[in-house]
Amino acid sequence: MTDWTQLSHAYGSAEDIPTLLDQIASDPSPERWNDLWSALCHQGSVYSASFAALPWLADVADRDDREQAVSALNLAGAIMAGSDQPHGAGDVRAHHVTEVKTLLAAVNKHLRTSSDRNEYAYLLESMLSFEGVVSWREDLACGLVNEEYEVSCPGCQANLFIVIGERGFFSTSGDYALSEDVVETTPLRPANPAAMDGIGRRLHDIALTDGHQEVANAMTYVFGEATCQDCETGFSVADQVGADWSATH
Q: Hey, is 200 helix, strand or coil?
């Protein structure tokens, strides 16, 4: 039996969490899910109560209500992405083997039936979190949904935008979204799907198999190459996103 009074979340004692879980179970709403997110995964930070909630989240994810299952999977994925942060919960993967197994099975089931591009991207990210894939577990979906990754040039450290989506496929050091002037851009060089390997090939093939051609195409750019306009250094987009992720965690 979990003693929530001995656990903490973003705002102090976690003694209020059982009531919130009961409220979501009986009358779920986006507002209550937002409250739970705010308490258990505030701006990516996790706490002892975050991991104590995994059994409840796994149970919801394993039920037939798809909307609630996806909400549970996204929050559980974000929590697991922070499992290496200081949180007082010990070895999370060792303590929650059963829950992680349930969550992974559920996320794979819902990936197969997801028709929404953004939902699909977040479920892919949660899948990686449950699998323990480090470099992409907090950045993959955000970049795909917002259609840009912000990285540092490995050559001169300039701040760069990697744009992948309706606005095109390019890199730029200019603020292309807000500038009224035309900013200098350089086309990205997508990877050849047949030559891709590792996590890039896997994510591309999963998206293609699941009928998400747009996501699969985006993966060729995410795992392709870009050029810095300031110093003309060429680099792997995926490697630099991973490097920037590591530098901030």
A: helix
Give this prediction's pTM. 0.90
Q: Which residues of the chain have pLDDT under 70?
A: 86-90, 134-138, 177-181, 244-249
CA distance 130 to 123: 11
Exposure of 215 in the CB half-sphere (CA atoms within 13 A): 32
Q: Distances in Å between the alpha carbon of 64 and those of 70, 106, 117?
A: 11, 10, 21
H/E run at residue 61: helix 54-61
Asked whether 191 and 224 are in contact (CB, 8 A), the reply is: yes
pLDDT of residue 176: 73
DSSP symbols for the chain:
---GGG-EETTEE-TTHHHHHHHHHHS--HHHHHHHHHHHEETTEE-HHHHHTHHHHHHHHTSS-HHHHHHHHHHHHHHHHTTTSS-S---HHHHTHHHHHHHHHHHHHHHHH---HHHHHHHHHHHHHHHT--TTTTTHHHHHHHTEEEEE-TTT--EEEEEEETTEEEEESS-TTT-SSPPP-EE-BPPPGGG--HHHHHHHHHHHHTT-HHHHHHHHHHTSEEE-TTT--EEEHHHHHHHHHHHT-
3-state secondary structure at position 171: strand
Token pair listed for 105: 């099975």
Residue 247's pLDDT is 43
- pLDDT tens, 151-172? 999 999 999 999 999 989 999 9
Handedness of CA 29, 32, 37, 40 (dihedral sign): negative
Q: How far apart are CA 27 and CA 22, in angstroms?
A: 8
